[in-house]
Amino acid sequence: MNEVTTLAERLSDLRAVKKMGIRELGRAVGVTGMHISNLEKGKSAPSAELVLKLAEALDADADELLSLADQVSPEVAAVIQKNHQTIPNFLRSAKDLTPEQWTKLQKQVEKMNKDNQ
To answer: What fold characterizes domain 7-72?
Structure first.
């Protein structure tokens, strides 16, 4: 499989892997087959809520699909809103971290959360 760069491509690929028809996927997430077709053609953009339903129906990584849709989960949006002054500054400070440094940082945050419990 090639590197997928758009939500439309990823949805189409995931649906093909699951051997699901457009109408079947639409029914699974509560929209019409036409809406799924429009998403796969890049003609419409889904809400974050619909992306989460699509991820569940397609056994896909919700964060990956949300990212491809230029969306964030409601949970992440709530964290950003709660910390609206510090999150942007933190991300600007961390923008040049390597993947390994991000992993290390994530582990440190998880440890801090565990220590707070």
So the answer is: 434 Repressor (Amino-terminal Domain) (1.10.260)
Neighbours of 66 (CB within 10 A): 20
Angle at 80 between CA 84 and CA 59, to 5 degrees: 170
pLDDT, average across residues 72-78: 90
pTM of the complete model: 0.77
* pLDDT score, position 49: 94
With vertex at residue 76, the alpha carbon angle to CA 75 and CA 77, rounded to the nearest 5 degrees, is 90
User: What φ, ψ does residue 70 adopt, rounded to 5°?
Assistant: 55, 45
Is the predicted pLDDT of residue 88 greater than 80, yes or no? yes
- Report how far residue 54's alpha carbon sits from residue 59's, in angstroms, rounded to the nearest whole number: 8
